[in-house]
Amino acid sequence: MSKPKRPRSLADNEAMAMVRAMRTSPQKLNLLCQTIRGKKAESALAELTFSKRRIAGQVKKVLESAIANAENNHQLDVDRLYVAEASVGKAFVMKRFRPRARGRAGRIQKPWSRLRVVVREREEQA
């Protein structure tokens, strides 16, 4: 006896990839995700390839994973995919301390982020 299978949360023409712990702040990651939202998957990959931001390589890997999931798991056409959703959230915060003057300590917060990328297949224009 097991639980009934959970229904798929995405539509039939969508595929997703997710990272639960990315070593950057959500604010910085969201700036990068704003540049790829709504773009074709091909041009979003090009944008991330030539971006100067440190985290762009990891975001590119997640997008490539979503495209591979669409192609291999859901049999979607890669040429018609676009980035339907790139959502960013907080994961956890590592707390560290740094010695300061007169025996005090300064708190340093090192935030981590979550990233969820959904690619969708465009409907054919008639």
For the biggest β-sheet, the strand order reads 1-3-2
Shape descriptor: flat
Q: Distance N terminus to C terminus? A: 48 Å
* Main sheet summary: 3 strands, antiparallel
Order of helices and strands: EHHHEE
* Top-tier CATH class: Alpha Beta
Description:
- With 126 residues, the protein is of the alpha+beta class.
- Helix content is 28%, strand content 36%.
- The longest helix has 17 residues, at 56-72.
Question: Topology of this protein?
Answer:
Elements: E1 14-22, H1 26-34, H2 41-49, H3 56-72, E2 81-99, E3 105-121
Antiparallel strand pairs: 1-3, 2-3
Helix pairs in contact: 2-3
Provide tags for this entry.
Ribosomal Protein L22, Chain A, 126 residues, alpha+beta, single chain, 28% helix, three-stranded antiparallel sheet, flat, 3 helices
In short:
Helix content is 28%, strand content 36%. With 126 residues, the chain is of the alpha+beta class.
